[in-house]
């Protein structure tokens, strides 16, 4: 009877305590294991609850035929394009929206107005230039005409967007053709910045052009948004429609050109010897073949041809177009065998200033990227993948990208330059997959291309170990490298699910954190095999389509049978960080006549970590009394065998761990047990251990051997922000945690 009264009192006290805890948790803590529910858009016939395209999924198409002239004397681009637009939507369209991204440089652009700046005691030349601007530069598109069937069309321009009004609606299932003539002055990237433009080499009076966003491009019309006509302010990149391209590029006759697509007329633009090398490259799988040599490039640098050549290219099922052109280019290429009949060319274009680094590493990095990404996403479907060298840039387009990494003038380079160059090439070539093929909306969600791409970039970098002779020093991807950002000042940290133009700490938020999240999801939560299957399913489902964040979240769960709502909620929708505090440890053994343990400490002070952080682990264990059960255990038919259970517990060690979630972000708990005999055991506790109490949990572990040390997340796999409170016994730096918390507050 006495025991029953004690149990009732304990239950009532526990109930009151639980109610108080629940009230506090409801007011101070969100329900971290609550399903995302209405946070995600409602599934429909276009996008299913499984994350797959629905049975009525549709998307528009836009085909382009373009004639482009690059004037090297005046640094201008003049173009004439014919667009055939296919309305595959169920809607009739009364007007079309066209992107004019070069207008961010126009005189009425809002881009310089929304930028913030402050004065310093000293400003370098570039800083002063960007405050004063180039007063002589006339930026933006000059639209000469917009016509259909030879008749002028009505249009108006709203900064970086142009609306074309239709004489009659373009009905569902129909297509129409119209043309735009235009020109613009090419910007100097080295002073004006930008993703596209020219680099000037003053010593020899030569230009190197990396040209993109150079033509009016169709905006996306999509099922979940309608027209994506959000203005281009400079950060949010591009939402674009797939189509086929036929492009004629007219340049000085001593120029070498690389572009999206397959070169259609090599005999007209290359020498016979260069044509032979080009054919050799298609059969070279071990090392690049030099198509235009450094000697030839140096000779071109000194020439000034008066005539022009037209390079003709075709590209199918791409969402954009870009090209490079210069008389300075060295050009090399090699074949990459992905499967029978699929052997794309990995190619590089670079001036002599890039050597010897570029000749040695660029095309090798391109080839490795195609192999690794093809393994983890879809097999690379395009005929070429090109890396172009120019200073101070990393930017991507279908089949072609522009990359930094320049040695010193004497050809020497540091490991930092080498690793930076290899990393940026992998990253930008990797963008062929995200978002050039798996075509997310960069204007809205930077992380869907940058974050996913940075994650697979990390996997690719690690594959270069054999070629380098050491492990590549990846900057983004490993869990511990995101700690400083995630545990930083609250006002500077925003959720991953933030619009591209509102992100603070752009690189950490849109690149590093989502990449790290996916790496942790792969290695710590799901395991590589299960994650890889689900991630590949997402890639295959949404290749050449327009996925949204919900499509990724739902597919990863659908293809794996793992409930990940808690993970998306914490990592992508919140700003909490990981900090698991091993707050207390108690050691017990069952009392027997042999061990003579006293029972008086059962309700006394805990053995293990005392309140001041000192270690009392070397003390004797506490005792617990084995009480025999009578009769049958609840509704089970088998009588509990007390002697057998008592025998199994005899001599065993029971460790009660108290874990506190100091950072707020729920996480799996990785435990390393080191025993007195020197042996080590690893144990992983799923994140769901926090499902009832997100702030503090206790768990008892039975161990046959006596424990000497316990470490939470010993290999730094969870991005735990503070590791001194992960160790038992505590180190002498136990007071640093309070200092850390005060600094964050």
TrEMBL record:
InterPro entries: Peptidase_M1_aminopeptidases, Peptidase_M1_dom, Peptidase_M4/M1_CTD_sf. It comes from the Bacteria. Residues 394-571 form the Peptidase M1 membrane alanine aminopeptidase domain. Residues 1-19 form the signal peptide. It holds the Pfam family Peptidase_M1. One of its GO terms (cellular component) is cytoplasm. Residues 732-745 have a biased composition (Basic and acidic residues). Residues 722-745 are annotated as: Disordered. The keyword Signal applies. PANTHER family: PROTEASE M1 ZINC METALLOPROTEASE, PUROMYCIN-SENSITIVE AMINOPEPTIDASE-RELATED. The lineage of its organism: Bacteria, Pseudomonadati, Bacteroidota, Cytophagia, Cytophagales. This is Peptidase M1 membrane alanine aminopeptidase domain-containing protein. GO terms for biological process: peptide catabolic process. GO terms for molecular function: metalloaminopeptidase activity; peptide binding; zinc ion binding. Keywords: Signal. It comes from Ekhidna lutea.
């Amino acid at each position: 009877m006495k025991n029953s009264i004690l149990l009732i009192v304990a239950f009532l006290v526990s109930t009151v305590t639980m109610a108080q805890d629940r009230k506090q948790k409801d007011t101070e803590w969100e329900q971290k294991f609550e399903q995302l529910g209405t946070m995600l858009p409602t599934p429909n016939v276009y996008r299913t609850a499984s994350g797959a395209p629905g049975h009525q999924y549709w998307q528009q198409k836009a085909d382009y035929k373009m004639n482009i002239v690059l004037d090297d004397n005046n640094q201008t681009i003049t173009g004439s394009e014919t667009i055939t637009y296919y309305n595959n939507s169920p809607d009739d369209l009364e007007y079309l929206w066209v992107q004019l991204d070069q207008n961010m440089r126009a005189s009425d652009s809002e881009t310089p107005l929304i930028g913030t700046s402050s004065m310093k005691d000293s400003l370098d030349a570039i800083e002063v230039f960007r405050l004063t601007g180039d007063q002589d530069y006339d930026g933006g598109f000059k639209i000469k005409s917009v016509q259909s069937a030879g008749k002028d069309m009505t249009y108006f321009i709203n900064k970086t967007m142009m609306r074309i009004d239709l004489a009659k609606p373009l009905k569902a299932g129909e297509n129409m053709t119209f043309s735009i003539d235009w020109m613009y002055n090419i910007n100097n990237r080295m002073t004006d910045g930008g993703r596209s433009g020219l680099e000037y080499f003053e010593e020899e009076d030569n230009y190197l052009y990396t040209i993109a966003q150079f033509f009016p491009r169709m905006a996306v019309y999509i099922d979940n948004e309608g027209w994506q006509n959000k203005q281009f302010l400079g950060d949010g990149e591009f939402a674009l429609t797939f189509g086929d391209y036929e492009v004629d590029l007219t340049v000085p006759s001593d120029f070498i050109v690389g572009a999206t697509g397959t070169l259609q007329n090599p005999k007209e633009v290359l020498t016979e010897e260069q044509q032979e090398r080009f054919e050799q490259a298609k059969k070279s799988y071990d090392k690049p073949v030099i198509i235009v040599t450094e000697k030839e490039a140096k000779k071109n640098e000194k020439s000034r041809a008066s005539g022009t050549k037209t390079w003709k290219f075709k590209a199918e099922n791409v969402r954009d177009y870009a090209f490079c052109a210069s008389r300075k280019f060295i050009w090399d290429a090699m074949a990459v065998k992905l499967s029978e009949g699929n052997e794309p060319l990995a190619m590089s274009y670079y001036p002599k200033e890039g050597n010897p680094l570029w000749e040695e590493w660029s095309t090798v990095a391109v080839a490795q990227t195609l192999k690794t990404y093809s393994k983890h996403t879809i097999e690379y479907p395009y005929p070429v993948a090109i890396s172009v060298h120019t200073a101070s840039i990393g930017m991507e387009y279908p089949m072609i990208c522009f990359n930094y990494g320049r040695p010193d003038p004497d050809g020497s380079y540091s490991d930092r330059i080498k690793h930076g160059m290899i990393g940026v090439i992998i990253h930008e070539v990797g963008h062929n997959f995200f978002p050039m093929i798996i075509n997310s909306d960069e204007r809205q969600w930077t992380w869907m291309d940058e974050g996913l791409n940075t994650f697979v970039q990390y996997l690719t970098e690690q594959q270069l170990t054999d070629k380098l002779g050491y492990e590549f020093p990846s900057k983004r991807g490993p869990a511990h490298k995101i700690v400083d950002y995630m545990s930083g000042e609250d006002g500077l940290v925003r959720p991953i699910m933030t619009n591209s133009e509102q992100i603070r700490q752009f690189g950490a938020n849109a690149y590093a954190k989502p990449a790290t999240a996916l790496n942790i999801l792969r290695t710590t939560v799901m395991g590589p095999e299960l994650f890889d299957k689900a991630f590949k399913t997402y890639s295959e489902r949404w290749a050449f389509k327009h996925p949204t964040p919900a499509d990724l979240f739902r597919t990863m769960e659908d293809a794996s049978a793992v409930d990940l709502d808690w993970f998306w909620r914490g990592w992508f929708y919140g700003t909490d960080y990981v900090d698991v505090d091993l707050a207390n440890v108690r050691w017990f053994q069952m009392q027997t006549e042999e061990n003579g343990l006293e029972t008086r400490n059962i309700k006394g002070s805990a053995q293990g970590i005392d309140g001041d952080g000192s270690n009392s682990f070397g003390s004797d264990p506490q005792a617990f009394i084995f009480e025999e059960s009578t009769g049958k255990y609840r509704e089970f038919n088998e009588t509990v065998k007390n002697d057998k259970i008592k025998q199994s517990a005899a001599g065993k060690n029971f460790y009660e761990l108290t874990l506190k979630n100091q950072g707020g972000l729920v996480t799996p708990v990785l435990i390393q047990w080191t025993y007195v005999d020197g042996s080590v055991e690893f144990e992983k506790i799923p994140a769901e251990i926090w499902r009832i109490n997100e702030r503090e949990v206790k768990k008892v572990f039975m161990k046959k051997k006596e424990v000497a040390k316990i470490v939470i997340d010993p290999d730094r796999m969870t991005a735990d922000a503070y590791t001194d409170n992960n160790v038992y016994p505590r180190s002498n730096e136990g007071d640093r945690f309070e200092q850390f918390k005060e600094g964050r507050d």
